[in-house]
UniProtKB/TrEMBL annotation:
Transmembrane segments: none annotated. Pfam families: Methyltransf_24. InterPro entries: SAM-dependent_MTases_sf (IPR029063). This is Methyltransferase domain-containing protein. It comes from Chryseobacterium shigense. It comes from the Bacteria. GO terms for molecular function: methyltransferase activity.
């Protein structure tokens, strides 16, 4: 699909969804007035992250006191089936990330309530749900509709049907989804951020999510090297954070 066709299809998708008009307005501002916002402070943060980064294995042990090898063996069959479903999916979205970090964050906190932003195939959702099902917990997910492609039916595609009973999916932008989620549950054990990559979008979401993270809960943010929002947020709130290097990108994680 050409860029022009993609933009036109996205715009038409917004026009058909009045409930998404607020996000359309934000998108227009982000791509015009605040166009450089996405990469604000990127060089600074990548240097900062590189100096302190550890592997996912090290982070899981240092933060949670747990070895992470059991995840891939215990759930080998489920992960293999999920990988096959991703391979067969006709729509391409984001692949699996640091699944062990998410899973063991849930195990460490004995999580019953988890919130995530950004779903795509549902790899991070799967990691959370595998832990939550042990305690009959609930995963609350915020994910924007895929307006530029016919991908909505494939959101969460790798999540097995038997885990979906513990999952509530909100198909709006974060600024609309998160208030709805917090109206249902106000305190969370684990927060996983992987949606709006802009500086302003992250700073807004970090502040809101942090207020709803219980003491002792775990905060995880993907792709923190895109800009300096995560670093600035941690410094502003005097947060000592761990930085995980994973497949050439950086993930931020801390215990509140």
């Amino acid at each position: 699909m050409s860029e022009i066709k993609r933009v036109l299809k996205t715009f038409m998708g917004y026009l058909k969804r009045p409930d998404l008009y607020p996000e359309l307005g934000r998108k227009i501002i982000k791509n015009t007035v605040n166009r450089g916002n996405a990469f604000k402070g990127k060089d600074k943060t990548n240097s900062w992250a590189a100096e302190r980064s550890v592997s996912q294995k090290e982070a899981v042990y240092q933060l949670f006191g747990l070895e992470m090898h059991a995840f891939s063996t215990t759930y080998a069959g489920i992960l293999k089936t999920a990988a096959q479903r991703e391979k067969e999916c006709p729509v391409k979205m984001g692949g699996p990330g640091a699944l062990e970090l998410i899973y063991y964050a849930c195990e460490f906190t004995h999580a019953k309530h988890v919130v995530e932003t950004g779903v795509a195939y549902g790899w991070s959702s799967l990691a959370s749900l595998l832990s939550l099902e042990k305690r009959d917990g609930v995963l609350y997910s915020s994910d924007m509709p895929y307006l530029a492609q016919d991908g909505d039916q494939y959101v969460g595609y790798v999540v097995p049907d038997d885990l979906k009973k513990n999952w509530k999916l909100f198909r709006f932008a974060d600024k609309e989804s998160l208030p709805k989620i917090f109206a249902e549950n106000s305190a969370f054990d684990v927060l996983h951020y992987d949606s709006d990559k802009s500086y302003n979008g992250r700073m807004w979401a970090y502040e809101v999510l942090y207020k709803h993270l219980r003491k002792g809960g775990v905060f995880i943010s993907d792709d923190i090297g895109d800009n300096s929002a995560y670093q600035d947020f941690c410094e502003k709130n005097n947060i000592e954070t761990t930085v995980v290097e994973y497949e050439g990108k950086y993930i931020g994680v801390f215990i509140k």
